[in-house]
Amino acid sequence: MKITLVNMPWATIATPSLALGILAQRIKDSFPDMETKTVYANIEFADWMERQGGYGAADFSFFSLQSYFMGCGDWVFSSALYGDPSWRVEEFTSTFEDRISDRQKESCLRLHRTVPEFVDTLARQIVADGPDLVGATSTFQQNVASLALLRRIKELAPETVTVMGGANCDGPQGEALHRNFEWIDYVVRGEAERTFPQLVSALRDGRTEDLARIPSLCRRVDGASVSNPQAKQLLAPAEIPMPDFDPYFERIRTSRVQSWYEPVLVVEGARGCWWGEKHHCTFCGLNGSAMTFRSKSPQTYLQEILTLAERHHVLDFYAVDNILEMSFIESVLSKLADAPFDLRMQYEVKSNMNLSQISRMRAAGVVSVQPGIESLSTRVLKLMDKGVSGTHNIRFLRDAETNGMSVAWNYLYGFPGETPEDYLPIIEQIPALHHLHPSNGINRIALERFSPNFDRPELGFSDHHPHWQYALTYDLPESELADLAYLFEAPPQGIDDKLADRLKTALDEWGDNYIRSRLTYTDAGDRIKLTNSRPGYAWQTMTLTDPVEVELFRALHDPRSVRHLTGLASRGDGADTWDDNRVEQLLADWRSHGLIFVDADRAVQLATEDENQLMCRIRRESERVGGSELALEQAEEPTCVTIS
Questions:
Q1: Is the peptide bond before 10 cis (omega within 30 degrees of 0)?
Q2: pTM for the whole thing?
Q3: Which backbone phi and psi does 83 adopt, to 5 degrees?
Q4: 3-class SS of residue 8
Q5: pLDDT tens by residue, 343-370
Q6: Which of 73, 80, 259, 327 meets the CB 3.0–4.6 Å disulfide criterion with 148?
Q7: How confident is the model over 529-568, as pLDDT tens digits?
């Protein structure tokens, strides 16, 4: 039996497919004599675009990264899906008149006219290789391209078994795909590492009676679509092998567009979300039917990272984990700090991490994080069920900036129950934040399948329907789109567009001023010196010399209440007396100078450590925990002040 796995557009060409890398290895492990081939059709398509002329990396990125919430990438391939180069061109043109740029519209229309040729050529190449089974993975905007390819393969070689899987096939979505597109023989819903080999085994041995016992499989019985029950037992981490990325690197090395992106390796240390198991963030539809958190053994995960780096001579890594397994800081990341490679990793984390944890991540090579900062308002964060406060998020931004770590985050709004009072104080304080990493954008929340907002009408989104992009792309009734869709529309909630525009303006100014803004401090024991270059504040240097003020500033490293600060200020001997009013006056003064951020009766100081302060702390922490040679080398020869 011969298997071909296909990674269609619009998967990014900057990374190999983790899903197909894992599946290919699972098949090799389960069936050593079976031939398995992985086709990176996304790279084939990028080469095809380049040969057409007039396309570049920015055009590919528009479809693969930027247009998901509009569905442009899926619509482009609808002409191949329905065999009509003019498929809904008029509807597309009118819908996108003011949504995208003229260049982007022209790219969409031009590709829409020509992709049937690409799909036909690709299908013929795959069929000529003689596979018994062709499987396509579908995540984000791969759905229509995968459907179109498998349809053409079935037309050319009806005996070829066609299979789809991936995130777009989870739950009802997979059932809808199988039900409405008859040329798909099987759909694997949810995790495929166990199910797909079972399907292959049954097909290879002709045991069709076993198909009814394969969990999560959609199959056909007398021409009708039948869905087996979802798997009751999730995969154990030990069942997830190290991915086979050789086909990706073999293909990208011969690509006409290999200069468009620098390759990044993708790794997976855990699945699910340990926070989501306890408190599912209301807007989040990630994890679908598999929220349960599971992590690989530290030794296995560490060895996978080092093996992949050495095998492929790539140092950039992206961890797809929805949230960091906190024990990995010690068991994996601390060991990576002493690895023979200077790795650069991206990770998703929770924003209540402390400075020591962030510093240890940075020493291990974590240069970019996505900490789930979706708001700076504690009350809105509670509406999201995020489990952090606005001041926690600010502390994370500050400490990440101290450690030279890039932070990817978006400001979300539109939550039922939010009010202007949740936003106006934040907007007023944003100029004080210009030295911290700005947001990547601002968006009204999307309504996603599998999210609490979708599953629980009492949260405020009971009146919803499939997002408009699906009706533009698919020739299906709304009742079927309701099962196929991942994104939905509902009447807007929360603040109005006018206030959202004010927030956007403030965030845009933050982004514009970030490159020229600094707020740092040096702690000399008996005094604290602050240096400022943020455009919104006229002062350049300030020194705190009052012992109580110095102590309170240090205490504000973490979010503190007035009551807590008053208790600290009143501990020492002396004539001065500190009460809540005096502390509030001090905080008001510091806030006017942009030294602190205040939200929900908590304040946190905003200054990052200057270089000397940072090096001193790294050395102290490294010596305390017997830290890595790398961290100690970074901290050589600072003039440190010991603070008791």
A1: yes
A2: 0.94
A3: 65, 35
A4: coil
A5: 999 999 999 999 999 999 999 999 999 9
A6: 80
A7: 999 999 999 999 999 999 999 999 999 999 999 999 999 9
